């Protein structure tokens, strides 16, 4: 894969699986490579990489005899040291950098949003208005860096390297982020994005009432030839879910699409709201 973060994520998941199969505790495994248990957990979650000698020591501790598997994992460790385009933005939070890496390696993202426009579809002005309202009051420089990174991420869509299926609550279309002019331009941008063959937009109208997962936004990242990952952004920390959770969230996402208007009707609603509520 071309994303070092994704490679680390996959390598970490493999190491966690091997440790659990070997019935080795986190503390004991950490001791075998002379790191803390918290560091090993960071390796297993893909937040940091691991060097060849330490990886070999872990594989020996887990009694991994399969030479092909050992070489594959060592190759992943080497690949995980590569730097993505986002590495030059050193001030980005680690959790955000990790997400960008996964996003860059994905072939499809299924994104459900209840409050804001999906990041991959935000205009520059909308993204700036969003970032400026951070409770921790980022500096002007930090705001501009985050906006720049968000626009860079959008090349995945405009260059056709990623398929996006986005489902939004109707509230997203009415919320006055940045003011009337900004939201009007944002709605126009959604209409333009929907013309791309790799973008599908659907809106769940207010009249639908209650529906699945209406209190929680999430994104499902699907990768070519590899298991998917669910990403849920939270106030106290981001959550990545794997395995059965991916299938459960996929079932929920399909239900959300059933509750939403068709793509054609959704675009008609976006245009109607833009023209009725956000006149220049």
TrEMBL record:
InterPro entries per UniProt: Cro/C1-type_HTH, DUF5753, Lambda_DNA-bd_dom_sf
SUPFAM superfamilies: lambda repressor-like DNA-binding domains
SMART domains for the chain: HTH_XRE
Chain ranges of the HTH cro/C1-type domain: 15-69
Source superkingdom: Bacteria
Signal peptide: none
Pfam families referenced in this protein's UniProt entry, alphabetically: DUF5753 (PF19054), HTH_31 (PF13560)
Protein name: Helix-turn-helix domain-containing protein
């Amino acid at each position: 894969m071309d994303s070092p973060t994704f490679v680390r994520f996959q390598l970490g998941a493999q190491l966690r699986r091997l440790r659990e199969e070997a019935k080795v505790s986190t503390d004991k495994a950490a001791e075998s490579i002379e790191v803390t248990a918290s560091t090993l957990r960071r390796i297993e979650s893909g937040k940091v990489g691991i060097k060849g000698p330490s990886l070999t020591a872990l594989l020996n501790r887990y009694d991994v005899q399969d030479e092909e598997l050992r070489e594959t994992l060592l190759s992943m460790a080497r690949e995980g040291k590569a730097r993505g385009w986002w590495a030059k933005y050193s001030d980005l939070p680690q959790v955000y950098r990790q997400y960008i890496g996964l996003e860059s390696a994905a072939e499809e993202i299924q994104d459900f949003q209840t409050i804001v426009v999906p990041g991959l579809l935000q205009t520059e002005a909308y993204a700036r208005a969003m970032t400026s309202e951070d409770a921790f009051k980022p500096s002007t420089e930090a705001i501009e860096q985050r906006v720049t990174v968000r626009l860079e991420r959008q090349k995945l869509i405009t260059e056709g390297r990623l398929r996006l299926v986005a489902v939004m609550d109707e509230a997203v279309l009415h919320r006055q982020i940045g003011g009337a002019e900004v939201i009007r331009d944002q709605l126009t941008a959604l209409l333009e994005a929907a013309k791309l063959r790799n973008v599908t937009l659907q809106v769940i109208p207010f009249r639908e009432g209650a529906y699945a997962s209406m209190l929680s936004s999430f994104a499902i990242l699907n990768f070519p030839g590899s298991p998917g990952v669910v990403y849920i952004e939270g106030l106290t920390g981001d959550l990545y879910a794997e395995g059965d959770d991916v299938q459960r969230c996929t079932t929920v996402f399909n239900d959300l699409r059933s509750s939403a208007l068709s793509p054609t009707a959704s675009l008609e609603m976006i245009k109607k709201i833009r023209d009725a509520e956000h006149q220049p």
